Amino acid sequence: MMLEKIHGGVVMALLYYLDGEILEEEPKVSAQDRGYNFGDGVYEVIRSYRGKLFALEDHVERLFRSASYIDLKLPYSPDEMSKLITDFYNKSGNPEAAVYLQITRGAAVRNHTYERGMKPVVFMYSKPLDDKPLSYYEGGFKAITVHDGRWDMCQAKTICLLYNILAKQKAKDAGCDEAIFVRDNGEVTECGSSNLFIIKDGILKTHPADNRILSGITRKYVIEVARKNGVHFRNEIFYKEDLFTADEVFMTGTLSEISPFVEIDGKTVGNGKPGEITLKLLHSFYEMVRSV
Ligand SMILES: Cc1ncc(COP(=O)(O)O)c(C=O)c1O
């Protein structure tokens, strides 16, 4: 088994799924898989809390949207896909887990163009997680800004992540947790693997969900939580200079939940600690996802 650990006294391990088979050992796919050769596929990462998958329907809906952007016909209906993921996850027995789901166009002798009748390859794993305490998020995170030179289909969650990988590695090498993407015109879009929000004068803003960002599931729920908490919200483009005059800045993602930034490009955000509104949203979101 790839990974084992003690979780509440029980030995937990990664469990795998490949094309109808559930396996304890890591499965192998064809070296001619188009995911391997071209990054030709889509994916999702779904978090479970207390033994239940969070926002599964949203993830499945986005998976189908992503597939249609890349002209990939999935071999299941959305309901069948949800059932497949749930059945697999339930077998893994991991109460706190990250379920990774990847569907590539299939395997064929390498050629840029593809046949529409190809058999997609469906791969999943369920990885046990340690549920992080609130204090982990409250500690604050650091980011650097990087140029956003990605393509104009960022709304599709594809496995072509090289630009994001390089950006995140640059952040890691700089001792930071995340890379914030800034376009040529100074527009801030999102992060390497998360969405970005700023708060200025009590107004919460994030980039509109267009083709320049991945419309995060966490982003959607954070906006709902903000509305419930009476926080003024705007889908609005903002610029690099706004990062340094913002009162509060945070990222959101399935695994990062709400993670406040306390430093960007070596400059302190706000007073150097997670701000009041961020903490309110963080606490509210943290409780909501765990109250299943
Ligand atoms: C580029 C990018 N933006 C945003 C997100 C956040 O999306 P979600 O909240 O659905 O995890 C991700 C997650 O992987 C991402 O890769």
TrEMBL record:
Molecular function via GO: D-alanine-2-oxoglutarate aminotransferase activity; pyridoxal phosphate binding
GO CC, one annotated term: cytosol
PROSITE patterns: AA_TRANSFER_CLASS_4
Keyword Membrane included in the entry's annotation: no
Cofactor: pyridoxal 5'-phosphate
Pfam families registered for this protein in UniProt: Aminotran_4
Top-level taxon of origin: Bacteria
Catalysis performed (reactions): D-alanine + 2-oxoglutarate = D-glutamate + pyruvate
UniProt keyword terms in alphabetical order: Aminotransferase, Pyridoxal phosphate, Transferase
InterPro entries with a match to the protein in the record: Aminotrans_IV (IPR001544), Aminotrans_IV_CS (IPR018300), Aminotransferase-like (IPR036038), BCAT-like_C (IPR043132), BCAT-like_N (IPR043131), Class-IV_PLP-Dep_Aminotrnsfr (IPR050571), D_amino_transT (IPR005784)
Main enzyme class: transferase
Enzyme Commission numbers on file: 2.6.1.21
One biological process term in Gene Ontology: amino acid biosynthetic process
PANTHER family tied to this protein: AMINO-ACID AMINOTRANSFERASE, D-ALANINE AMINOTRANSFERASE
Job description of the protein: Acts on the D-isomers of alanine, leucine, aspartate, glutamate, aminobutyrate, norvaline and asparagine. The enzyme transfers an amino group from a substrate D-amino acid to the pyridoxal phosphate cofactor to form pyridoxamine and an alpha-keto acid in the first half-reaction.
Similarity annotation: Belongs to the class-IV pyridoxal-phosphate-dependent aminotransferase family.
Subunit details: Homodimer.
Protein name listed in UniProt: D-alanine aminotransferase
